[in-house]
Amino acid sequence: MQVHRVSRQYVIRKLLIMIPSLLGISIVLFSLLAMAPGDPFDELATNPAVPPEVRAALRAKFGLDDPVWMRYWHWLIALLQGDWGFSFVSRMDVSTLIMQRLPVTLVVIGASQILAIAVAIPVGVLAATRPYSLFDQIANTFAFIGFSLPTFFTGLVLILVFSIQLDWLPFVYRADISATGWEFYWEHIKQSIMPVTVLGLFQGAALVRFVRSSVLDVIRLDYVTTARSKGIGERKVITRHVVRNALIPVVTLVALQMPIVFSGAVVTEQIFRVPGIGSLLITSMLSNDTPVVMGVTFVSACLVVIFNLIADILYGWLDPRIAYR
Amino acid sequence: MKERELRGLIGKVKAGKLSRRGFVQAMMAVGIGAPAAGQILLSSGVAMAQPASTYKPTKRGGGGPLKLLWWQGPTLLNPHFAVGTKDQDGSRLFYEPLAAWDPEGNLKPKLAAEIPTKENGGLSADGMSVTWKLKQGVTWHDGKPFTADDVVFNWEYAKDPATAAYTIASYQDVMVEKVDQYTVRVKFKKATPFWADAFVGTRGMLIPKHLFADFIGAKSRDAPTNLKPVGTGPYMFKDFKPGDLVTGVMNPNYHQANKPYFDSVEMKGGGDAVSAARAVLQTGEFDFAWNLQVEDEILSRLEKGGKGRVSVTPGGNIEFFLMNTTDPWTEVDGERSSLKTKHPTLSDPEVRKAMALLVDNKSIQDHIYGRTGPATRNFLYGPPRFDSKNNPIEFNIDKANDILEKAGWKKGSDGIRAKDGKKLKFVYQTSINQPRQKTQAIIKQAAQKAGIDIELKSVTASVFFSSDVANPDTYTKFYSDLEMYTTTMGQPDPGTHMLQFVSWEAATKANKWQGRNITRWQSPEADKLYRETEVELDPVKRAALFIKMNDLAIQNQIVLGIVQRPTVSAMTAKLNARISGWDNNTSDLSDWFKDA
Question: Is B283 within 8 Å of A49 when comparing Cβ atoms?
């Protein structure tokens, strides 16, 4: 394909622009966290058995008494050397904490994204090719229900039905399954079914609407009529000519959603106790563990910026009419 | 029962004229429970009958996995850094102290060979030292022997301010010396009635010298063993993911015969309390769930399935009601509620008396807390030996009206009582938490009927309980007329707990509101009682002093107990686990087992 349309210059320029914007993001994040009330060693202050000197020593040890700009500078320098910082609460490297959580997040959230796409594309296309048919009506109704119901509600309903009433599935996710071989995979699948379904259907529901309207836009275009009049079979018209073009905006949308795969799904992770990045973020926020919060949010920010660029490039690659200069 | 009679009875037991059981029965007759009676005997030099062990398994292991669910997972596993209960509970899977506190508030030996008493020479007569005999033949998980050097090292480690151990307070004012390979002596600077602090319970867990010796002081955070515990406990460390999971396997060389029962242990974190209760009581996915701050009504419903039961363990935590003695609405030298002021209306003892009559503990228990909050008027109620019988719960709106009327507080056209142009209008603050808001509503309603107007205020917990000097809404600043929260009592000794009533602990700007006396009550009488408890070595007399101090605060309506906050946990039907309100949930883990 015509990759050359996206000029190398364009990519380099975009990459260069990323640097100041990431710096800006990091400054905003850092100062917001510095201004937020709360102190990681609060628990010490309210504990009668802990003399104030201990808290003072800890604050000094973790550099909390330095001015904000100096702390930011230290953080930035360390980051450039590949050091993500040191958790106040767990007393271990932030990168270790994130790496511990990443596999679970990738598997669970990744699987739910795949489920969302796998459901949304066929349903959306089918609904669009037969607009206002019974299938379309049903698909629309479910899509509306799907994205109107919050995940904490559907999650609880699933738990009530499948764990408590039927007793088929566990509702506490455990990253360490002691079983081996097939049982290991089976246990993992069993405990992933509910969180993946909840997340996948939630994201899929919105995607169905998007795919449907995108296909509807394309299906009315002249070139589709031309293709049909050439005598190409309906099936081929849809798959080769309609879907291919209709999916261009969908691809962009999916690419922009990818950073979510990293940052996890806070609510769903909390309900099913999935030890992902989302739950790490929320517990770190609650305990004012700023280095971890900073690490997770900054990685998310980087991913958003990068995937924006990827979406831009993909778009130009898929739709040659768009030229970048 | 008068003190002299009591001493007479104790004398008879000592002389063998009265059996232990006879003594306990005599005490029960006058309303002193068996545990309290046992404690009185112990502290009077009569050895305690160790409760018959209920541990049934006859061999080590074979119990399968033990699955624990903590809805906040442990985030670190060095007991000297473990500020949060979750972290202490997690560390306790692997580490042990010399002695642990049992549910009755008595000591149970762990790494000690015996509990020091005057009779076995462990306690010096002048209260200046305590000598611990260590259990011999104990090894760390890596096979190295546990000796007196390890104990002394823990003292050196924790007392160094640069280590920044949260346990420092238990160690910095004592001297610890090695007597021989298996004996250590803890020396105090002054006669110390409560000697069981260093090396005991939560803050007494011991870490191995050979792995931490290089990481004392400023280097403490770099010790690899911080994240991979090596202790003496019933389970050996396997894996740790902060906030998510701690796992361990049976220690095949554990120093108690036939223990532990389970082959492995896992402590899963995350989620919320209600679903944790569900996972134990309803689906049985887990064996034990911790700290269930859930309405009793929900717990009872979950319990109906019969898969598990709720266990309520009394401790000393108290949800209580505070009346400001200073004026929260006038600023003096940059602080409100300053010691230089007096509360404009609450300084009238009759107003306080009336206010106390409007707190309906019984309804609060019945309609809000249920089993998880038995009503009490006392601030100090546990262990039972400190529970005063002198403060009955009285709720009486008519009487409150009567008192106010007589004291000259007359109802105005708006129905609010006033005197000399000062109206009985109060701001009543607490943290955001559903039971607390319901309690506020009950008290407000009663007050309204007595012509007192209460404005309710609720503050986000993270702000209310923070030590943020810049925030006016923290509980220690107490910039309101009335307040309510739970204060915890970590040890069965009320020494720290009762600092709430001594003048020098008043929370002020000068101490950055870190003082323990939140109402800022200034009472020479309470101060004197507290000073006496600091030197009184006789446990019976000392308990009487604390009871008197509690009565003084309650009867002057400085604070009022609302409900006790016991530890609530859930366990599967077959699990046998004794939880102590005076120590970590997992303090007795070695003795947990399941019925076959």
Answer: no
Q: pLDDT per residue over A181-205, tens digit each?
A: 788 888 888 888 999 998 888 888 8
Axis crossing angle, helix A94-129 with helix A244-263, rounded to the nearest 10: 150
What the block records as the tokens of B354 is: 């009336």
Chain A CB within 8 Å of residue B69 CB: yes
How far is C-alpha A23 from the chain's CA centre? 22
- Residues B446, A68: Cα–Cα separation, whole Å: 49
Distance CA B223, CA B157 (A): 12
When pLDDT is cut at 50, 70 and 90, the band that residue B18 belongs to is low
| Each residue's pLDDT tens digit, B225-280 | 998 999 999 999 999 999 889 999 999 999 999 999 999 999 998 888 888 999 99
- Residue of B170, B245, B270 with shortest CB distance to A176: B245
Q: Does B283 touch chain A (CB under 8 A)?
A: yes
pLDDT in tens, A112-136: 889 999 999 999 998 988 888 999 9
A89–B244 CB contact, under 8 Å: no
Find the CB nearest A57 among B75, B162, B467: B162
Mean pLDDT lowest for which of A12-21, A53-62, A83-92, B378-387? Answer: A53-62
Is the per-residue pLDDT at A1 higher than 50? no
Within 78-137 of B, beta carbons closer than 8 Å to A belong to 78, 81, 83-84
In chain B, which residues have their Cβ closer than 8 Å to the Cβ of A90? 75-76, 242-243
**3-state class (DSSP) for residue A247:** helix
Q: Which of A62, A273, A282, A284 to mutate to test the interface with B (most CBs of B within 10 A)?
A: A273
ipTM rounded to 2 decimals: 0.80
Closest by Cβ to A163, choosing from B271, B283, B463:
B283
How many other β-carbons are positioned within 10 Å of the β-carbon of residue B28?
A: 13
Least CB–CB distance from A270: residue in B75, B203, B271? B271
Q: Check: CB of residue B545 under 8 Å from CB of residue B528.
A: no
CB-CB neighbours of A150 under 10 Å? 12
d(CA B517, nearest CA chain A) in Å: 11
| Residues in chain A within 8 Å Cβ distance of B76 | 89-91
Q: Which residue has the higher pLDDT, A259 or B444?
A: B444
Helix pair angle (A134-148, A181-219), 10° resolution: 120
Token pair in block for residue B202: 């939560």
- CA–CA separation, B547 and B518 (whole Å): 20
Is the Cα dihedral A261, A262, A267, A269 positive or negative? positive
